[in-house]
Amino acid sequence: MKSISNKVMKKGLVVTYINYDSDLDILELYTNEKVHHSVNLSDFVIASFNSKKKLVGLELMDLSTQYQMSKKALENIKNAEIYFKATDRIILIRINLQIINQKNQEVVLMPMLEPMAMPA
User: Fold this and answer.
1) Burial 79-117 (b: 16+ CB within 10 A, else e)
2) Over the Cα atoms of the chain, what is R_g?
3) In-domain check, residue 5
4) Closest to 111 measured CA to CA, from 95, 99, 90, 89
5) If I label 56, which of 17, 48, 82, 99 is the partner at 20 to 30 A Cα–Cα?
6) Containing domain of residue 65, as a range?
7) What is the pLDDT of residue 79?
8) What is the pLDDT of residue 11?
9) What does pTM read for this prediction?
10) E strands along the chain, which residues?
């Protein structure tokens, strides 16, 4: 799949809640908007939507394995941005994570998640 730039994708979420559970290897990213319903978009991604069907949160499972990132790095996420583009049929998601390590801050660009079917 071709890379999609931030200019094509909309910055859809201001992430206010970040939680990484290293035991379960799950990263939760949420806004402060109320979740109306959640949908499994794949075996590794749960998307949460508000009552207007706006994306308001993500849960990414098996994250360290799927993206070959250390659990130690994932425990040190300071900020996250979610870029997405949705149509009636699919949703594309890319996540930027700002991770604090002992020497400096670095921004990790997670690869684009595979296109997923848009929930009904």
Assistant:
1) ebbbbbebeeeebbbbbbbebeeeeeeeeeebebbebbe
2) 14
3) no
4) 95
5) 99
6) 10-117
7) 87
8) 58
9) 0.79
10) 10-14, 17-21, 26-30, 37-40, 45-49, 55-61, 77-86, 90-100, 105-109, 116-117
